[in-house]
Design a protein that fits this description.
The chain is an alpha+beta fold and about 325 residues long. It is about 50% helix and about 15% strand. It contains twelve helices and twelve strands.
Length: about 325
């Protein structure tokens, strides 16, 4: 790829992408376990208090709301974009919705932080009372309320990435600018495959029918791919394949039989990055690839079964007239 081509490709992506960084800092409520901690009371501390080389100096359940808000904020970014460095690359057209969600998460975090700090001393005493004989183990490294407050924060930043002009092809290639687009596309394929596999394992294995609710994660994957379709020409054919499968399903009631097999087929496609790319490239070449369900069926993208070729059975004849076996098989 020439320097101008590299710069055009990078410029095209950067014009449509905003990088969002979620910065959530959460106090762990843990401290490193020391040898003297194991002999404080003359017996081993309970597993609820120590594990994996650390001791819990505060009730971990009290800190769970913060971790939940952080996960939801990151899931919001992943639903619309892909991981990029230690942040998320998100289409500009999706930015307002993502920012609104992150602002809401920031408000939720602030409310939980205030409630946590208001009850800090009370929760601290409850945790110590739960493990009599181990009060010193807990107290020795327990932080003050003010120190804990400084370790609980939530914020986010949105920023654009500007391209760098290169004088030579070697500079462009060594800096990796030409790999930016491929890197984002590859990350997108990997994330979609992970989401599809998780959905299959959790909601499809062993099922002979599913409800309309089953379609929600597939639609979410479709929206994610559609939003990032500007990254690569292979993404739009995948979106259209999902649309054709979903468009051929009953709009209400449970899904079984061929509709369910069509869903197995599209999830099998989405769960494999290489298969997705081959499928899309075949469509771009003007071919009509099928969906393999894993149940011995090939389907077109409308979910119709494609009958496999099979040999014609020889007609029954009298024993005295059985011919010699033919060396050529006949197919229909």
């Amino acid at each position: 790829m020439s320097v101008p081509e590299v710069q055009v490709a990078v410029r095209s992506v950067l014009q449509d992408v905003v990088v969002v960084s979620v910065e959530a800092h959460i106090w762990s409520g843990r401290k490193k376990l020391r040898p003297e901690d194991l002999t404080t009371s003359g017996r081993l501390p309970p597993k609820e208090l120590v594990s994996l080389g650390s001791k819990k100096v505060f009730n971990p359940k009290a800190l769970k709301p913060f971790a939940k808000i952080k996960r939801e904020a990151e899931s919001l970014c992943l639903a619309k974009g892909v991981r990029f460095a230690r942040a998320f690359a998100i289409p500009k057209c999706e930015l307002s919705g993502v920012v609104a969600g992150l602002r809401s998460a920031r408000e939720d975090f602030a409310r939980e932080r205030d409630a946590f700090l208001d009850a800090y001393e009370e929760e601290r005493e409850k945790w110590k009372a739960r493990y009599p004989g181990y009060e010193r183990l807990i107290e020795t490294e327990l932080l003050s309320k003010e120190a804990v407050a400084a370790r609980l924060s939530f914020g986010f930043q949105a920023f654009a990435v500007n391209e760098v002009e290169f004088d030579t092809r070697d500079e462009a290639q060594q800096t990796g600018a030409g790999g930016l687009v491929l890197g984002l596309v590859g990350q997108l394929y990997q994330e979609v495959a992970s989401e599809a596999r998780e959905h299959m394992d959790r909601s499809l294995l062993g099922r002979v029918e599913v409800t309309q609710k089953f379609l929600r994660p597939i639609r979410a994957i479709r929206e994610k791919l559609a939003g990032m379709a500007f990254l690569d020409a292979t993404l739009d054919p995948i979106v259209k394949t999902i649309d054709e499968v979903l468009g051929g399903l009953p709009q209400e009631g449970k899904l079984s039989g061929l509709p369910l097999e069509a869903l197995r087929g599209v999830l099998a496609l989405l769960s494999n990055p290489h298969r997705m790319r081959r499928h899309a490239e075949a469509i771009l070449r003007g071919e009509n690839p099928t969906l393999v369900t894993g149940q011995g069926l090939d389907l077109d993208v409308q979910g119709r079964a494609i009958a496999p070729e099979r040999p014609v059975a020889a007609p029954a004849v009298a024993p005295s007239c059985v011919p010699e076996p033919l060396s050529v098989a006949v197919f229909i």
